[in-house]
């Protein structure tokens, strides 16, 4: 019996059920499975994982790879964490929401919108998070090319 038997089984099942939509799946260490998912398939893969016992969305981590923005969805059954990577072009960044499967995704996906400028389709209207409502809507502080510009009224006060 392999040390990573359970992880390898999860990886194989993902590749089997989502042939062509899941790529670069690998087991890097105990209790961790990584896979890239075709962006449009994210909600379907998330729902499949939930049905397979992965009931918890631990967190969502946004990233900036230059030409692409994206996120890692870290989903767990409390023993193994499946890390799903999805990418979207920087020119028109958009990801589908997993809110229907994981209601706890709301604040994480709002954070993707606020901090990276990634439009998450399927999110209900609501206030911004975590930035204040008066923060400029075209500024995304976690993008690598973001530069802080001090507001004019603060410059004048100095």
What does this structure look like?
The protein has 158 residues and is an alpha/beta fold. The chain has helices at residues 5-17, 42-51, 105-116, 152-157; strands at residues 22-29, 32-37, 56-64, 68-76, 81-89, 94-96, 119-121. It has a single domain (5-157), classed as NADH:ubiquinone oxidoreductase Nqo5 subunit (Beta Polymerase, domain 2, 2-Layer Sandwich). It has a 5-stranded mixed beta sheet. A two-stranded parallel ribbon has the order 6-7. A hairpin with a 4-residue loop joins strand 4 (68-76) and strand 5 (81-89).
Helix-strand blueprint:
Elements: H1 5-17, E1 22-29, E2 32-37, H2 42-51, E3 56-64, E4 68-76, E5 81-89, E6 94-96, H3 105-116, E7 119-121, H4 152-157
Parallel strand pairs: 2-5, 6-7
Antiparallel strand pairs: 1-2, 3-4, 4-5
């Amino acid at each position: 019996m392999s040390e990573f038997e359970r992880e390898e089984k999860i990886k194989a099942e993902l590749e089997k059920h989502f042939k062509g939509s899941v790529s670069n799946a690998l087991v890097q260490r105990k209790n961790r499975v990584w896979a890239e998912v075709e962006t449009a398939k994210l909600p379907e893969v998330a729902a499949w994982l939930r049905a397979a016992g992965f009931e918890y969305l631990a967190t969502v981590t946004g990233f900036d790879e230059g030409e692409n923005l994206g996120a890692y969805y870290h989903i767990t059954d409390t023993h193994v964490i499946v890390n799903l990577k999805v990418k979207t072009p920087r020119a028109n960044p958009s990801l589908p929401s997993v809110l229907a499967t994981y209601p706890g995704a709301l604040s994480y996906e709002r954070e993707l919108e606020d901090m990276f400028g990634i439009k998450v389709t399927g999110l209900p209207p609501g206030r911004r998070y975590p930035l204040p409502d008066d923060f400029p809507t075209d500024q995304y502080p976690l993008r690598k090319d973001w530069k802080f510009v001090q507001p004019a009224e603060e410059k004048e006060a100095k």
